Amino acid sequence: MELKESVESFEDIANQSLIGTIIIQDDIIKYVNKKMADMLGYSAEEILKWKPKEFYVVVGPESIEIAQDQIPKKQYGLSGTKYHNVVQMKKKSGELYWADSFGKTIEYQQRPANLVYQVDITGRLKNEKEIKKSEENYRKAFQESNLCKDLIIHDVNNILSVIKMSAELLSEVLKTPGSSDYYDLYINLIQESITKGIQLISKIRKLSKVERSKNQYLKQIELYPILNQAIDFTKKWVIKNLEITIQPKEVKYIVKANEFLFEVFENILNNAVKYNDNSKVEILIKISQVGEENEEFVKIEFKDNGIGISDDRKNIIFEHGFEAYKGGKGLGIGLSLVKKILEQFNGKIRIENRLNEDYTKGSNFIIFLPII
Q1: What is the pLDDT of residue 177?
Q2: Do 132 and 78 belong to one domain?
Q3: What is the DSSP letter of 306?
Q4: Could you give the CA distance from residue 331 to residue 310 in angstroms, rounded to a whole number?
């Protein structure tokens, strides 16, 4: 009599609860309260008629394995029981939801059983996911604003350096009789640098107007025209004897990128020239198609005969702030920007020696860009 009253008292309390409650014994649901039935979209009568193990129909596909592992253990108090799980559930309608599930072994009608409490947390998880997504968007926006800032500082500095050098050379030419042939060269350099500065401002303005999702400002770009533009620009300001070779000369590769791809190529070419002590600067650009991690990439190798980069510096050369401790000659902040830009394209960059064992014989900067 006391046992019967105790069970009835438990059921009365459970039916008033806002927490879903079930009792599983011998792989059969022996009790379900109204809240749990409502959560699942069944009536209590339907649930209590289920055959052994038929209750697995309400477990979502992502949680079926954990349910099949834990429910038998909790029915009989076996080792390896987890009292708390977040599980995916499936309503009668087929709709999936997530629940905080607490289960333990109890004595029910003088025999062991699994008592389960569940709370629907789908709304909470959705809010947490939205908050996380919002935080991620703000983080991306912050990173992109820093990228824009660094690009402006770096490129404007380069532009002004070219203008300053050209103005100084032009000043010397004006003092030298019979050297007017150089007028147009230096004036064109100044004009082209100013044009490049205007184009940079246009790019930054365009970037600032779009949504902060990278896929919305990436587009299909043909590789070779952008690369050739960067080569032509480099050749115009270089005073050294410069030879740039592309192998193969022309293949149509379409990549997903934006206008900043020019900055990537120009930056690497600029470094290959700037950090080179030879009387003749040689740059070999090898382009091929490779498969990596189940994806097709254009592989672009920039092999130069410059001063090279030691192994200990290869590990840090793409880090932001490297220019602060590079000591003497180094490649500075430009390469950290190159890496950031390529990451926006889902691309990557690495550095090797031009000749395997001797870094002093030059570097090989290798870029990978996903093919459309």
Answers
A1: 66
A2: no
A3: S
A4: 12
